């Protein structure tokens, strides 16, 4: 029996060492590289930081011709091209930032066979002129690979759909003998399936890496005073570390960045509303300097390759588990311990539901967005290992708890919330049946607690039989109960105004057919947070 050959063909290893300065392939890179060098197509699902770029860069350099890389972000394109040039690779890009002269020069070089790798923005490829240019390259010096990065952008129901990606499908197979690659860090089976069919890659080698990032500690805390909570996290655990803080709106980004800066954190903002020059300057300061904290909308980070990001914090709940996973995946690419921290509150849920209701798009799209949000909320409300939940969500279930997430480190105390849930549901039902009214969280909690507010008196809600039946639980306690019932699908936010109705499981809970387990944490966690000193 011959000894097994080391993974990676000789030519691939030679390029890896000479050009990139790495000793060996990592994880499942060699499998992908070998398949593509052999002329096969590949679908590559690897978590952020796993090293997807090398999967196409190496075959592009080993095979004859120019490697074609579709990449959606111009900033990222520049970084990649700069890095490749520094390594002696003849890399170019084609995007909307170039002048006609610059473009003409790139075209000339392409046709002369002087380009190893070309990065192209997807919108460039929908035009006929670039297509015919590439046809000439294919017929002349050759195309070595056709790589579609961030391939999940082709998924119409995904969190990051880009219409230009749909047009890429007709380029697949256009140049016979050129292997096509689709790469993404999105891991759900649904996305995998969709990008495979849309890009006609059924016959490809599919490499789905493990999505576990063991060095990332996942923590999700009840949102109380998010700025203070965030500052405490930074001061207690990440003083002087580089980090990314995600917020939903540009406004929240600005306020948080300013506030952190006033409290001695080297924080800078990043969002689409900022002047392009400031944005670029802030991004490069984050990449270049030590210990900078970027406060950003999700516009920031796709493809950011900074290995030593020590924490990613979300002060608003992300729209989907996929988004959350990609964003948190930017922490700890160097493999050293890193924190993924999220503060999550009831207001977020109401607001996100409103976004979905008001969004353009058909009913199916809204249902999908709603399902995405529900999965995210279920993760937030998990009473068991977060990592196991995450991995199961990505179709990679595990047998054991991870020992490195908040629910593992501090097991969550749960209580039987069935009776509380029934009280709350009855209140919603009584208002509907007896008064034909719907109300939001505030009024419902006031009724449960038996508070005679002007609004309660105005509507004579103190006459309801449910008035005061929940006085044994505090305001805060009820908010926690409600948040969890929404996440579990027992209660739902019924409309734009945040009024509440029965969720999918509501009727079963009312009838006592479905027990409700709730986390005990809101008040305790908030108290522990403000009280504990490290
Ligand atoms: P992804 O695109 O999957 O998020 P990247 O391609 O940006 O990841 O790679 C992440 C980091 O890992 C980069 O700094 C890259 O240089 C490094 N890297 C990739 N492959 C290897 C390898 N085989 N050996 C050492 N470092 C690697
Ligand atoms: Zn765990």
Report on the structure:
It comes from Amnibacterium soli. The protein is α/β, with parallel strands linked by helices and about 525 residues long. The chain has 23 helices and 17 strands. The strands form 4 sheets. A 7-stranded parallel sheet has the order 3-4-2-5-6-1-7, sandwiched between helices. It has a 6-stranded parallel sheet with strand order 8-13-12-9-11-10, sandwiched between helices. Strands 14-17 form a two-stranded antiparallel sheet. α1 (about 10-20) crosses α3. The N and C termini lie far apart (about 60 Å). The protein binds adenosine-5'-diphosphate and zinc ion.
* Distance separating the two termini: 58 Å
Instruction: Pick out the low-confidence regions.
Output: 1-6, 522-534
Bound compounds, each kind once, are:
adenosine-5'-diphosphate, zinc ion
- If strands are numbered along the chain, what order do they take across the biggest sheet? 3-4-2-5-6-1-7
Query: How many β-strands, per DSSP?
Result: 17
Estimated share of beta-strand residues: 5-15%
- The proportion of residues forming helix, as a percent range, comes to 40-55%
Characterize the overall form.
elongated
Domain Helicase ATP-binding: 33-205
Pfam families: DEAD, Helicase_C, HRDC, RecQ_Zn_bind, RQC
GO molecular function: helicase activity
EC number: 5.6.2.4
